[in-house]
Description:
The chain is α/β, with parallel strands linked by helices. The chain is built from 8 helices and 15 strands. 34% of the residues lie in helices and 18% in strands.
Amino acid sequence: MNGSDYRIKNFIIGDGNLTLMAGPCSLESLELGMEVARAMKAICAERGVGYIFKASFDKANRTSVHSWRGPGFVRGLEQLAQIKEELDVPIVTDIHEHWQAEEAGRVADVLQIPAFLCRQTDLLIAAAATGKILNVKKAQFLAPEDMENVVEKCRESGSGRVLLCERGTMMGYHRLVVDMQSLVTMRALGCPVVFDATHSVQRPGALGGASGGDRGMALPLARAAAAVGIDVLFVETHPSPEVAKSDGSNMIPLSEMGDFLDHVLTIHRARRIGALWTQSLYTPSGKATNG
């Protein structure tokens, strides 16, 4: 992969450093988005971490038809554009229909393809045509090696800048299981890899008309993913998850995000140092040096 292809502002995804995508599940209001983006930008700046603000203008895959979905396409993009301009932060948001890609791409630095839609050819083609970096979430029903076809669709449609995101595999009712091997498998496809720590602890439909989750498991999984090797960590956060309009049981309280990130960074940086040290012990032929 060409690292320069993944440059956003003053950082590069996949250069060995960790990038964070973080924000509320849904863009509940402009004020909420501003609060989270401002806080997360400061947290990441203190730690030398590239930051991308995440929020959805429409949660089109909610469990119930009565669930909150968001401010909508037009108003949502207006709010995201305002957050981007006023706070000088990159934006990632998800699209659900092929016709949304071009206009959303004028605002977002990264277009996200939801897991349920990662095989939708027209959606991938339209997203790739924008020239934006794509964050494609692996479907809960796909094996990681099946993402090769997804990557091929994007590349043949004009985008070589694809991120592949692990967010758990469906194993029985109301449970997701993360197979850390998928991060290795997807990286072998030539793409930086993303770990979605908060959707991986989701329990789809567990609350009847809504999904449940266990945010207490997000940090252990994020630390494990960092040990295996990731380029981007994806975390949903909210000042008061208990009153969030979507995915509250999964989201990390905004006040805890500094400590959360510190735990993951400790492992990520230790792994990077260990990898460099290991490489220094071997010649290009794979034979150990005298050192």
